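Recap from last week: sequence in, structure out.
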Amino acid sequence: MIKKGSKLYSVFTNRCPVCHQGEFFEGRPYKGSVRHHCESCQAKFQKEPAFYQGSYFVAYGLGIISILTSIVGCLVLLPTPNPDYIFAITALVNIVFAPFLYPMSKIIWANIFFSYNKKALSE
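Predicted structure tokens:
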């Protein structure tokens, strides 16, 4: 179990990186629209205009990790790895996980720049 106060808690529960209680996204996470501020601690999520443009680098890294994981998984699990099967499985994995990588990259990017503050709710 991931404990409250860790960055992983904020990433996997889509919670505010500062207080870990408020929602980070407006509506459904795979739309990728970040709230302007947290409804619990009033932390402002936009440090500057186009702040989340840097999350594209994180999305690229997550995409590379998913590709490498699916290739290694094919090489380990398939008895005779055929390049066509590896390509098809890797493409399928990326199509399935693509809607989750973009919002996850935004919340990871936010957790790089925001820190958990236990006292944020009382302020």
